[in-house]
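Bug #2210: token dump truncated for histidine kinase?
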Amino acid sequence: MKIKTRLTLSMGGLIVLIMLVLLAVTHVQFYITRDLAYLEEKDAFEALRMEFEQYYRSHGNSWEDVESASFESAAPFVEIVLSAEEQALYQQGSLSVDKLRGDGYMLALGQGDQRIGRLYVMNERQSKIYEFKTMWYGMLPNIGIASLLITGIAALLIILLLSWRLTSPIRKIISGIGAIKQGGAPIVLPAHRKDEFGAISKALLEMNDSLAEAERTRKQLMSDVAHELKTPLMIIQGELELAHETGSPLTAVKQASILDEVLRLSRLVHEVLDLSRLEAGMTELHPKEENLVALLEDLLTKTRFMAEDKEIQLSLHAEEPMIPVSVEKSRILQALYNILTNAVYYTKTGGHIRIHAETVHLPDRQQRYARIRVEDNGTGISEADLPHIFDRFYRADHSRARPGGGTGLGLAIAQHNILAHQGFIEVESVVGEGSVFTICLPLED
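Reproduced locally. Full output below:
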């Protein structure tokens, strides 16, 4: 149902409700006023009651000839009906018995515990109230019809205006959604409004920006992956074509070169898949309590040969021998391995890399953390590169894009693994002096 139709029906229902309320108020007001008239002139009512009861007793406990009797107390009353055994025995006035029974004031007549009849009466004031009520009830249908017509026309005009104003932002939003679906078309939304329509429009614009950013990221990822795959594939293709054209067998050196490129391709594919699962939240963690110090010692054992090849001094400094953390061992080792190998790549021959492990309480985060600091005295990272080092395929040193260099995914995978453990990673660096990577993992209270 359209908004215009709903508003029209609502307005019509409101008018009918107002008329019914007026009718009910008039009805209730009549009975209240009628009863107030009795309270204000109670003596006259009671005198009439007693005179009728006296008549009944004086005629041998009967209403014989009451219809022709005259009652002195009846003078203030315009309408009187005496009813006994469901019959009207006495009547004064012009109203019918049924109407007086319905709207007159009732006086019960009794002889001891015996009920001998009822009087239905109206004094002059009550009669005028009754006449007003009857007149109002007679006019009410005509007033209602006229009100409905006048109000209906006015309401229709107002509804048309309101519906136009109310549906205008909705039409713009629908048009904006259509533009979002088409992609690339100009998007016009009433985001300037301060109401719910403005909030919806802002949310749609934010969603569109997110979709656009996701699409840009997807295209960039495809471009980066294609670029990374192209170099090793070209090397492999070139070596095989050369061997095929010359008919000479591949030497051991050529075979080793091709194997390196195949391994590089395999590593790239695995890292892309791993990062995609992490970004999509599809990697389920199975944490267990581990000794962080033991994990770091294991890491140094696996990477020491890389440091020794460049004569880099690699050391571990732990605040205590046991720092328990709840982690998935393989994921944390992968993150720490990527960070440490990154430090080895950027540290010159003869440099040093120091790893510090400690427990700290961070007041701004209201929690205790296990903190690992990986410090090197390598080339450092420029301020321009620093915000992007956790981006996929980003390399501060573009020379590492050559075969044998990294894929540019290591730090991105490390960051996602740490975030998956509810931790965080930060980096500080000065060009020419070195870098410090700080990893914090939450400790259980």
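Output looks complete on our side. The chain has three domains: 3-130, 216-279, 288-442. Marking as cannot-reproduce; reopen if the truncation happens again.
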